[in-house]
Amino acid sequence: MSIKFFLLVSRQGKVRLAKWFNTLSIKERAKIIRDVSSLVITRKPKMCNFVEYKGEKIVYRRYASLFFVCGIEQDDNELIILEVIHKFVECLDKYFGNVCELDLIFNFEKAYYVMEELLLAGELQESSKTNVLSAVLAGDAESEADAQQDSLQKLVGSVKKR
After folding, report:
1. Which of 10, 84, 88, 160 has its CA 20 to 30 A from that of 130?
2. What angle do helix axes 78-96 and 129-161 make, rounded to 10 degrees?
3. Which among 49, 56, 3 has a CA at the least distance from the CA of 18?
């Protein structure tokens, strides 16, 4: 099982998050985003969550106003990818507390961090939500401590200049 790309697309077609696990040119990425987002957005809610696209499978799931889209190889299991998408949404939900599109817009780096704790090179790295969230929260605490130390050093530096 190897995910080639992971996209979060709004109903209006705006990309909110894009993670690529294969090397592609910017033109190729833009074409894939354009094609896949228009393909997924236009589908009716009762339709299947799997679509074929240029020899690959597109697996998607809609949560509220966002489409979570994964591109996978033809022989990969779609149901496992749906579970990976669901696990990612659950982690985001726990981290942000009922995640919404605005959380992802204004805190996209945190969403990427959650994704990177969950997936590694397109493979599921950690299946435990607790472990993913504890790693993310530990990273938050560390960056907060660094920010406090930096502000303290700036304060001490400004006092010394006086």
Report:
1. 10
2. 40
3. 3
Tens-place pLDDT, residues 118-147: 887 776 776 677 777 777 788 878 877 766
The average pLDDT across 44-51 equals 84
* Counts for the chain of helices (H) and strands (E), in that order: 5, 7
In the block, residue with structure tokens 């990177």: 116
Whichever domain contains 154, its CATH number is 3.30.450.60
| H or E stretch at 136 | helix 129-161
CA distances to 35, 96, 115, 121 from 91, in Å: 28, 9, 9, 19
Number of domains in the chain: 1
> What is the spatial distance between Cα 14 and Cα 78, in angstroms, rounded to a whole number?
24
155 pLDDT tier (thresholds 50, 70, 90)? low
Q: Taking the CB of residue 73, how many other CB atoms lie within 10 A of it?
A: 13
> Which residues on adjacent β-strands are paired with residue 56?
53
Report residue 111 as tokens.
């969403």
Domain residues for the domain of 90 are: 3-161
